[in-house]
Amino acid sequence: xxxxxxxxxxxxxxxxxxxxxxxxxxxxxxxxxxxxxxxxxxxxxxxxxxxxxxxxxxxxxxxxxxxxxxxxxxxxxxxxxxxxxxxxxxxxxxxxxxxxxx
Amino acid sequence: xxxxxxxxxxxxxxxxxxxxxxxxxxxxxxxxxxxxxxxxxxxxxxxxxxxxxxxxxxxxxxxxxxxxxxxxxxxxxxxxxxxxxxxxxxxxxxxxxxxxxxxxxxxxxxxxxxxxxxxxxxxxxxxxxxxxxxxxxxxxxxxxxxxxxxxxxxxxxxxxxxxxxxxxxxxxxxxxxxxxxxxxxxxxxxxxxxxxxxxxxxxxxxxxxxxxxxxxxxxxxxxxxxxxxxxxxxxxxxxxxxxxxxxxxxxxxxxxxxxxxxxxxxxxxxxxxxxxxxxxxxxxxxxxxxxxxxxxxxxxxxxxxxxxxxxxxxxxxxxxxxxxxxxxxxxxxxxxxxxxxxxxxxxxxxxxxxxxxxxxxxxxxxxxxxxxxxxxxxxxxxxxxxxxxxxxxxxxxxxxxxxxxxxxxxxxxxxxxxxxxxxxxxxxxxxxxxxxxxxxxxxxxxxxxxxxxxxxxxxxxxxxxxxxxxxxxxxxxxxxxxxxxxxxxxxxxxxxxxxxxxxxxxxxxxxxxxxxxxxxxxxxxxxxxxxxxxxxxxxxxxxxxxxxxxxxxxxxxxxxxxxxxxxxxxxxxxxxxxxxxxxxxxxxxxxxxxxxxxxxxxxxxxxxxxxxxxxxxxxxxxxxxxxxxxxxxxxxx
Lengths: 102, 637
What we know:
The complex is a heterodimer. Chain A is mostly helical.
């Protein structure tokens, strides 16, 4: 088994664990962390697939993704902070204003 | 909607005239119990004002010759009901008589009712009655007249039952009310017939109506008159009505209200067909004779006068039926005076005897003529007034009663040429003979024979003597009064007395009256007011039979009602209720079940689909991811 295959498995593992974190964690910050993990998995894949061929498009794209992820994290944390100020919680399940009251 | 009202002086005067007694009644009812002595004074003053206004109205209308002052009141089916005053000679004279008698009765009542507890109610109702009576007399429309007719009946009911603590008075007032209501019902039916026949109830235009319903309508109206004017067979209430205070009997049950029926007959006389007139004549003849016979055998001084009133009213009705309308109307006016005088005289006697009885602690019936006697010397002025009025009633020459009686007798003589109509003529002559007899009996036992009690009655106060004397003078002076102001001269304009005068009839009647008085003297000389048979038996006997029959009939119908009609109704309702239960059950269980089931199913489905959208972001993400995976799998394979 080539070394690079292990790295592919690592990407898949990262993505799956990120997805699992997004589905299971209660806190919005943890969900954001899950999303970051999934983005990292995507970056890993971009870099890995780029190494199979000539050219630097994949690595450049990975750089873009990192920058976008930074922005996304900043915006996401800002939203979470605002939500926390407003609702006094950062757990999405407890924010249920639009839900039909029993 | 209303046409502009003609505000002529006569209209305003008539309005004032109508409102004064009403104000009097209102003021009386407003007076507090503690100062109830004020009520007689205010009412009498108001009545004096009424009388003065009626004289003014009389004078004004004489010069202006006004007839109908009307305005559109309301409209039914495009046909207007015109309310207003009809001021012709008949109504003006009647207004004058009503207000004068009412005034005198008010004055008399001050003395008579002095010790009564309910002065306020008494004088209030007297004022209200006068208002209703004046309205009745002046109405230009039969419908409006009917309203006042009802009001008159109502106030009569209240006044008969003035002493409603007495059981007899309470029953008498109820009886009068019920019998009058029977007549009123018929009156209303007659009005409806007239309305449907012509759409017009104005009195002046009655003569233009021609319809096959005319006879039926006429008979219906006559039945109404029969109840109000106490004609056979609806006269039983009048003797019982004597339970009321005597001034009330004088005003309502002798002078005015019972005369309203006769007045109405005079008013609507153009309406009557020949059949109606014959009917009127026969009813009047029967009533006149029965009333006279009834008066001959009574002991109670007021009941004698009541039966006499019935008889005299019958006499007038008979006169109208035979076409001697002018004579009938004139007799109505004269009768108002002398009968009111007789009643007030009787009231004086009763009052004086009561006072004496009060001192002597005696408890005889002071209205029974067997207990009276010798009052001629003790109450000379009352005696004089009474005997003058009695002479007028008997129809002695030089009295007012004589004039009208001659007019009627000659009218009937002309009418009853031959055949069965002689029956009416015979009745008229019988009344002429019987009237002096019973009034002689009354006067003889009240004023002449020696009293068999130790009571010492005193003459009544001036305030009670005055009205009696006024009425007595009014009963005799019509012939002698200077023509410029006397009532007779006015009546002469609407009736030409000389035209009917029949010297033969006059001579015969004078002869008969004197003969009758002499016979009375010889019959009653021994001091025995004997009676052949109890008048209640034959006069009220038919009433008993009718009542028994009615009770039997109502028992049968009641049985029928409970057993068959109620049974049927109950059966139907049971079936209905059972049916309702069955449908209710099926509705609840079947129909509602179906609908509820659908609703439950829809709700379940909704809940199922809704459960995905549970408001949790992560589950949305999960589902989205699942959808994505399914989509990818579907694309790949």
